[in-house]
Every structure is written in C-alpha cells, then in structure tokens.
Amino acid sequence: MSIYVESVEVLEFPKLNITFSTHEKKIFDVSPYLDKGIFTELQNRDYFKQVKAENGTIEWPNGQDFCPDTLYIKGL
C-alpha cells in the first residue's frame, strides 16, 4: 500500500499538519532540515507558508519537497 499526502496545513513555524491517504493526520517538524541545502530557503516564514499538497507529497514553489514516506515515518 502506497501512502501519499492528501492535504497540508501550516501550523506554528516550522511545523506542518499533514493528512495522509490513510486519513491519519501527523505533525511534521521541518526544523531539522532548515539549514540543509535547498531547504535553507524555507527559513523565510512567508515562503514556508507557500507549501502545497501536490503529486502525493508536499512542495514549495522553488522545488523543495519531501518523500511522503519520510513525512509519514517522521511525523508525530
């Protein structure tokens, strides 16, 4: 069974509330990634808020994304 993201909601920076295809909701904390490569752009709170659920995962306008499995496994 493949798990994918159905929706995403921005919570208190830098956390996201993610709803999966299993109808489970998990909170994903992006803070461990904010100082890594392409994810440094997510430190800008206005840009961070531009996250969308697309193609079964979450994405930002400049191409940052996370594997749905990572979001599910690391989500609380």
- How many domain units? 1
- Which residue ranges are poorly predicted, with pLDDT under 50 across at least 5 consecutive positions? none
* Gross geometry: globular
Estimated helix fraction: 10-25%
> How are helices and strands ordered from N to C?
EEEHEEEH
What name goes with the CATH superfamily?
NE0471-like N-terminal domain
Q: How many runs of DSSP E, i.e. beta strands? A: 6
Give the percentage of residues in beta strands: 25-35%
Q: Give the name of the CATH architecture.
A: 2-Layer Sandwich
How big is the Rg? 11 Å
- Terminal CA distance: 20 Å
**Structural class by sheet pairing and helices:** alpha+beta
Main sheet? 3 strands, antiparallel
How do the strands of the widest beta sheet line up side by side?
A: 1-2-3
Oligomer: single chain
CATH class assignment = Alpha Beta
In words, what does this structure look like?
The radius of gyration is 11 Å and the shape is globular. By secondary structure, it is an alpha+beta fold. A hairpin with a 4-residue loop joins strand 2 (15-20) and strand 3 (25-29). It has helices at residues 45-48, 68-74, and strands spanning 5-10, 15-20, 25-29, 52-54, 57-59, 65-66. The protein has a single domain (5-74), classed as NE0471 N-terminal domain-like (2-Layer Sandwich). The strands form two sheets. A three-stranded antiparallel beta sheet has the order 1-2-3, with helices on one face. 14% of the residues lie in helices and 33% in strands.
